[in-house]
Amino acid sequence: MSNLIRQGDANLAAFGQLGSVVVASGATHTVSTGKPIVAFTPLTGVTGITTIGENSNFPTMANVPVPVGVTVFGRYTRVTSIDGPTIVYFG
């Protein structure tokens, strides 16, 4: 049971309700305290993405091509956008 006023609100925090940031081409975003990276979506073309997974359940990716508009879910400590801007969601 959640400690939130409305029990259903616990699910909202898992899918970007803690905010997001746009990572510019060639830039890296590292986790802030209390805001783990839970998903990312490239904004242009096929973007090369490099990530570091939070643990072995979420593997590290090295310059993996991700098509525009595809959202990749997981738990990551760092996301680098190689070829274009990417939205990184916190949860």
Give me a quick take on this structure.
By secondary structure, the protein is mostly beta strands.
Question: How do the helices and strands line up, and which of them pair or pack?
Answer:
Layout: H1 9-12, E1 20-23, E2 28-30, E3 37-42, E4 47-53, E5 61-66, E6 72-81, E7 86-90
Antiparallel strand pairs: 1-7, 2-6, 3-6, 3-7, 4-5, 4-6
Rounded radius of gyration (Å): 14 Å
Count every beta strand, where a strand is a DSSP E run of 2 or more residues. 7
Q: What name does CATH use for the topology?
A: Jelly Rolls
Q: Which architecture does the CATH hierarchy give at level 2? A: Sandwich
Span between termini: 18 Å
**Average of pLDDT:** 82
Helix fraction?
Answer: under 10%
What string, H for helix and E for strand, traces the elements in order?
HEEEEEEE
Given this structure, which CATH class is correct?
A: Mainly Beta
Count of spatially separate domains: 1
Number of helices: 1
The parts where pLDDT drops under 50 for at least 5 residues are none
Give a quick account of the main beta sheet: strands, pairing sense, barrel closure: 7 strands, antiparallel
Which range does the strand content fall in?
A: over 45%
Structure classification: mainly beta
Rough outline: globular
